[in-house]
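Structure tokens please, single chain.
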Amino acid sequence: MKKKVLITLSVCAMLFSACKENNESNIKKDLESIDSKIASGFDNLKDTLKIKDNSNINSDEFKTVTLDKNFTSLEGTEITFKNILKANEGKTIVIDIWASWCPDCIKGIPSIEKMQEQFPDVAYVFLSLDKTPEAWKEAIEKYKLKGSHYYLNEKMSGEFGKSIDLDWIPRYIIVNKEGKIVDYKSIAADDKTFLFILKNSEKKDQ
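Here you go.
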């Protein structure tokens, strides 16, 4: 009787050990499968979102094609973006790329007005992508936008837009007193990080 019990216990122990090893092996395979699926899923996500090298976004200078782009002033004269920046040399510059047909651009105007009250010494440069010069000028008058105004007869996907990675408007850029880009891609004038950078830019040399 005892012998039978010992044999039974021995067989159970062997079966348990075999089941355990098999279970651990299956778990390992399952984990490897999950890791593989996660890696594959992430690769697919990158392809879907078209994630690419954003190294030029971190640059503190504009590209040559950006600087050489011609805009039209309210007086009707042509001026390069390089000379727009030069006209405000030594100042912190907030660049607002907008259009009157853009609802978010219009919604952002009160935040711009508050910013202008808080930072009166900043140069505010508005670059319009309106469909017509008439719509551009009417919007400036209607919303009483204070600052320097320039018009570009291009779409967001045009040469200028591509040169600054323009995928949304409004788009705000901050250039410091040394002429370096310190905020390249903000889309809200009341964004805390945007305002923090602007405040720090204005503190310098004061």
